[in-house]
Design a protein that fits this description.
By secondary structure, this protein is an alpha/beta fold. About 50% of the residues lie in helices and about 10% in strands. Helix 4 packs across helix 11 and helix 8 packs parallel to helix 9. It is globular, with a radius of gyration of 38 Å. The protein starts with a helix and ends with a helix.
């Protein structure tokens, strides 16, 4: 009975020791994009312990008898505890050995995987995985897609026309034959390139057509050099002039340069505005002189790069001002024709929007669907614009590599 009582007391003490302490809730708050707070899992901490005392007996004879019995019981219990502790130590040693073996096995697996990666090299892109036969089949299909898309250019300008062209652009992109993963690209332009009035990603960056073009072609590095108010000419602010601020808008590491500008030159209304002469190879005056000067610098410093100029989509915005060198009001197409002629003269490429009626927003239905304020694209406009420019780049580089 006494032995059972002692065991019961010890067991109670163990329960008290295990159950001691208090639970502390330490909650964290995580805010999602919709600002909904989430409470994380709480932790538990044990603090402090309870110690038990021992009663002393005063009867000497009884003490001797009880001490003898307790000594025997304690020796027995000590032996049992020693055996239990020995078994526990053996179990812990065995567990430690198993854990060590597991860690060693994991380290061996990691080393094996690392060795295999070093032997295999970097992962191949989707295009690099295609055989030459598969690439050739894709190239032929690209020709068919391009021909089919060209038949749509003769349709009446409308939202439906742009939608049909966009469907073909997506076919071309899904059938891409060129690997852009090692190419750096810079997009130079105004607020349309920058993405003003468009959506914002989770990092706070503006989402423009540049974002969507990259999502299809997966460039090695993309630089968006769009800035609101930028133009070719100089009308009071050289920082916004492509011609006069050339060194700060281009990038020496870019393999591909895409320029999408000119609408601000057309819409600006300074006093005594000058259009210039596209055939004058010496003057830098007016819009024509500024475009020529900008392209001349591109040719001088980046002759070995692939350079593209994107013509502006048509819209309902008009500008009325007095020109010092021409009568009447040059149209948006007159401004774009300067870029077409000079790009051909300098050997640059044109990505045409205006002439083919792509995203023509002169009618209310198209303008309301694609544009936010009659000029800047909303998300619908940025998507189709980015996909069309990406499709043009895909066709150009795919055909060039095949020649």
């Amino acid at each position: 009975m006494k032995r059972k009582s002692m065991v019961a007391i010890l067991a109670a003490m163990m329960v008290m020791l295990i159950g001691c302490g208090e639970r502390t809730n330490e909650a964290a708050i995580v805010v999602r994009e919709n600002d909904t707070p989430i409470q994380c899992v709480a932790g538990c901490t044990c603090v402090g312990c309870i110690c038990c005392g021992t009663d002393q007996l005063t009867n000497n004879s009884a003490v001797q008898t009880i001490e003898t019995e307790r000594t025997t019981e304690e020796q027995t219990e000590t032996t049992e505890i020693a055996v239990t502790e020995t078994e526990g130590m053996q179990t812990q040693e065995s567990t430690a050995e198993e854990q060590t073996e597991t860690v060693q096995t994991q380290e061996t697996e990691i080393e094996t995987e690392s060795t295999q990666e070093e032997q295999e090299g970097p992962a191949l892109s989707e295009i690099e995985k295609l055989s030459e036969g598969e690439l050739e089949a894709r190239r032929k299909q690209q020709e068919n897609f391009e021909e089919a898309r060209q038949t749509l250019y003769s349709l009446k300008n409308s939202k439906d026309k742009t939608s049909k062209i966009n469907q073909m652009d997506r076919q071309i992109l899904a059938n891409n034959t060129y690997d852009f993963s090692k190419k750096n690209i810079v997009f130079i332009g105004d607020s349309i390139t920058e993405g003003i009035t468009s959506a914002v990603d989770t990092s706070g960056n503006l989402i423009s057509y540049v974002t969507y073009a990259d999502s299809y072609l997966h460039f090695n590095h993309v630089l968006n050099h769009g800035k609101g108010g930028r133009m070719f000419s100089v009308y009071g602010d050289e920082d916004l002039s492509l011609a006069m601020n050339f060194g700060n808008v281009t990038n020496v590491d870019s393999d591909i340069i895409v320029v999408f500008a000119g609408v601000n030159d057309y819409l600006s209304t300074p006093a005594n505005k000058r259009f210039g002469n596209v055939d004058d190879k010496l003057s830098t005056a007016g819009y024509c002189g500024s475009v020529r000067y900008f392209m001349k610098q591109l040719k001088e410093y980046y002759a070995d790069r692939e350079i593209f100029f994107v013509t502006m989509y048509n819209n309902s915005k008009k500008a009325n001002c007095t020109y010092s060198d021409v009568k009447g009001q040059p149209t948006l197409d007159d401004y774009l024709e300067v870029q077409r002629k000079l790009a051909k003269e300098f050997g640059f490429n044109i990505i045409e929007l205006y002439d083919i009626g792509f995203m023509d927003c002169t009618d209310k239905e198209s303008s309301d669907f694609y544009l936010r304020d009659g000029l800047h694209p909303k998300d619908n406009g940025n998507i189709v614009l980015g996909e069309h420019i990406a499709a043009e780049l895909s066709l150009y580089f795919g055909q060039k590599e095949n020649n």
